[in-house]
């Protein structure tokens, strides 16, 4: 399996999975995509029904690592990665209402769906860096969950230095403390003056500075890294198989911010999973749902909301969908992305938008509607959802079709957002034992403005110290 950029052609020396894992973002600023979609036959899907989650994940991810990492090595990694999840099924599927399911993706160490991919990424980095006898520096941007999942997966790994940028004052206290109380030498947290988009722009600007990129061996844990998407595909396969695939269609509803989670579902559909609809949910930062409803992809200010992890305007992974909707025409994709960066508006051709509409639905919830959804699911089904997962459930319920199961991605544990959960339901969600003393732990982080030169110096100093 070889990879190409959304902004470039497939070259004779195209990188393999290990290469793009370390590269993170393509040199031309585009995102890596597999040269073609691996297909999973209905027969293979049926055979996979009885696999454990770790073994299923290894089979799915192996389709993208062909020529770089074999399935036996991957199976060792997946078995290890998911061994400590606090649910035997790893990704349990709970029926909340008739034919409306919650796919719980928050049973990992940091209580969010990011652990699903990040626990694999830490192991993949170790494997490839050891093979190549190299060190890498990860600079990541987070609106709250990616950061702690990356830190947990990479802490103490000798071949990795990790710097996580979070928007100062815009995460929940639990989210911030999950990052800033980790004391391992290879981890540095920086609170940046700005919003998530500022942090993500800074990461991309560091990648665009090729001298810096080479100097520190820069790599990525954000979902700009294809490995993140690959490791998020298996749970869609698992849920669909549990509900009758390949002999029955399934729809998914996904609370969406950087578009990485739902893109993994879309990839599963390209690979042969019988997915009918993909429904995306937004908070007031509704650029993606405005796009689905009106072909209006125009950037507004990032506004704080009850679901802070989705306080995002520029969704990196949308570029991957755009590339596909343009029939993989990388020249057009690059031109549209350039114009988007310059004007804040993306002119997606009408025929591409119409094709996207055949699969995607979209809906926005205000904070009041999010609270109301949390209250309703709790009162009527005794299901306690965090604000992000509640958006997924509400949107799934809105687009349910008779006879087709709707699976909503439950992306975070309610205890990550206690204030919102208490206000909506009166229930105080407790942190699990391994985090019960989180508020007694010492925090350690730097505060910086969004000047790239200062941040690059902080990264250099961190590598020297580590
Ligand atoms: C809890 C939670 N829900 C939903 C999302 C949105 O997911 P994505 O960015 O993959 O669209 C995020 C962050 O990305 C998140 O942390
Ligand atoms: N919600 C995310 C934002 C970053 O998304 P990613 O897909 O690049 O990891 C977060 O919690 O940080």
TrEMBL record:
Give cofactor(s), names only. Answer: pyridoxal 5'-phosphate
For this protein, what reaction is catalysed? Answer: O-phospho-L-homoserine + H2O = L-threonine + phosphate
Give residue numbers for the modification (N6-(pyridoxal phosphate)lysine).
Answer: 114
Which InterPro entries does this one have?
A: Ser/Thr_deHydtase_PyrdxlP-BS, Thr_synth_N, Thr_synth_N_sf, Thr_synthase-like, Threonine_Synthase, TrpB-like_PALP, TrpB-like_PALP_sf
Q: Does the keyword RNA-binding apply?
A: no
- Report if keyword Amino-acid biosynthesis is assigned: yes
State the source organism's domain of life.
Bacteria
Keywords in alphabetical order: Amino-acid biosynthesis, Lyase, Pyridoxal phosphate, Threonine biosynthesis
The record, for CDD domains, names: Thr-synth_2
EC no. given is: 4.2.3.1
What sequence ranges are listed for the domain Threonine synthase N-terminal?
2-82
| Coiled-coil region | none
Query: What does the record give as its pathway?
Result: Amino-acid biosynthesis; L-threonine biosynthesis; L-threonine from L-aspartate: step 5/5
The regions listed as transmembrane in this protein's record are: none
GO biological process terms, semicolon-separated? threonine biosynthetic process
User: A Pfam family name for this chain?
Assistant: PALP
Q: Which NCBIfam families match?
A: thrC
Q: What is this protein called?
A: Threonine synthase
Q: Lineage of the source organism?
A: Bacteria, Pseudomonadati, Pseudomonadota, Alphaproteobacteria, Acetobacterales
């Amino acid at each position: 399996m070889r990879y190409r950029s959304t902004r470039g052609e497939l070259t004779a020396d195209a990188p393999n999975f290990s290469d793009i894992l370390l590269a993170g973002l393509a040199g031309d600023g585009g995102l890596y995509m597999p040269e073609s979609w691996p297909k999973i036959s209905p027969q293979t899907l049926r055979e996979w029904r009885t696999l454990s989650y770790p073994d299923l994940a290894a089979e799915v991810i192996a389709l993208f690592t062909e020529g770089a990492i074999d399935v036996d090595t991957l199976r060792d990694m997946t078995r290890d990665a998911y061994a400590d999840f606090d649910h035997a099924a790893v990704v349990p599927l709970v029926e909340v209402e008739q034919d409306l399911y919650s796919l719980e993706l928050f049973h990992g160490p940091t209580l969010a769906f990011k652990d699903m991919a990040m626990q694999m990424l830490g192991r993949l980095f170790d494997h490839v860096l050891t093979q190549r006898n190299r060190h890498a520096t990860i600079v990541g941007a987070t609106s709250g969950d990616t950061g702690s999942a990356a830190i947990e997966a990479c802490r103490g790994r000798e071949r990795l230095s990790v710097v996580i940028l979070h928007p100062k004052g815009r995460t929940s206290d639990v989210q911030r403390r999950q990052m800033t109380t980790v004391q391992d030498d290879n981890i540095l947290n920086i609170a940046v003056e700005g919003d998530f988009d500022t942090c993500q722009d800074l990461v991309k600007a560091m990648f665009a500075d090729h001298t810096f990129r080479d100097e520190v061996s820069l790599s990525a844990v954000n979902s700009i890294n294809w490995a993140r998407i690959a490791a998020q595909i298996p749970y869609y396969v698992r849920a669909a198989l549990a509900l009758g695939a390949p002999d029955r269609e399934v729809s998914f509803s996904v609370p969406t911010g950087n578009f990485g989670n739902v893109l993994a579902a879309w990839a599963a559909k390209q690979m042969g999973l019988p997915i009918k609809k993909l429904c995306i949910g937004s908070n007031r930062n509704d650029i993606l749902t405005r796009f689905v409803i009106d072909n209006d992809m125009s950037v507004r200010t990032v506004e704080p909301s009850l679901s802070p992890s989705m306080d995002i305007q520029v969704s990196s992974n949308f570029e991957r969908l755009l590339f596909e909707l343009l029939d993989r025409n990388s020249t057009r994709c690059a031109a549209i992305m350039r114009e988007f960066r310059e004007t804040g508006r993306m002119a997606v051709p009408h025929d591409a938008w119409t094709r996207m509409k055949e699969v995607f639905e979209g809906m926005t919830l205000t904070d009041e509607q999010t609270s109301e959804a949390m209250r309703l699911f709790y009162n009527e089904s005794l299901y306690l959802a965090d604000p992000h997962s509640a958006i997924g459930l509400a949107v799934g319920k809105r687009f349910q079709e008779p006879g087709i199961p709707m699976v909503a991605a439950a992306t975070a544990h309610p205890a990550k957002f206690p204030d919102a959960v208490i206000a909506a339901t009166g229930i105080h969600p407790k942190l699990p034992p391994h985090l019960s003393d989180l508020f007694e732990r010492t925090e350690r982080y730097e505060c910086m403005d969004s000047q790239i030169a200062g941040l690059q110096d902080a990264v250099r100093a961190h590598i020297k110290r580590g």
